[in-house]
Write a structure and sequence with these properties.
Elements lengths: L2 E3 L10 E8 L1 E4 L5 E3 L2 H10 L3 E6 L6 E5 L3 E4 L7 E11 L15 E4 L4
Parallel strand pairs: 2-9
Antiparallel strand pairs: 1-4, 2-8, 3-7, 4-6, 5-6, 5-8
Length: 116
């Protein structure tokens, strides 16, 4: 994993989560928590980080930024080119568990312009 910035937090290795996709919104916070060069690395780390609220792609840097639960998801003219994924905590599970559940597919990302 080529994480550029990382702080140690509570993790649950191997867990997989689904996300809700937002266009034109971004997380804001006091500092950058973690950033990655690829979406796959960002998603896997956010899946496993208990305090991760989601991640977004910054259109200028082309890097994926993870944000803790304290970060706010905002819509603003400055966030027009951003693509954001908000973790859906109720979907997080270890692959192979609860196989009889008829919920969302593992890692499914849904499009929406409205926040939950």
């Amino acid at each position: 994993v080529s994480c550029i910035t990382r702080s140690v937090g509570q993790t649950t290795p191997g867990i997989v989560c689904s996300y809700k996709k937002y266009k034109g919104r971004a997380y804001t916070g006091a500092k950058v928590w973690m950033r990655f060069e690829t979406e796959a690395e960002a998603k896997q780390t956010c899946d496993e980080e208990d305090d991760c609220a989601g991640y977004h792609l910054h259109p200028q840097t082309q890097l994926w930024y993870l944000h803790p639960r304290a970060a706010e998801l905002v819509e603003d003219p400055a966030t027009d080119g951003f693509i954001t994924f908000k973790k859906r905590d109720m979907t997080c599970h270890h692959p192979g568990e609860d196989e009889d559940d008829e919920g969302d597919d593992v890692g499914e990302q849904t499009d929406s312009q409205d926040e939950l």
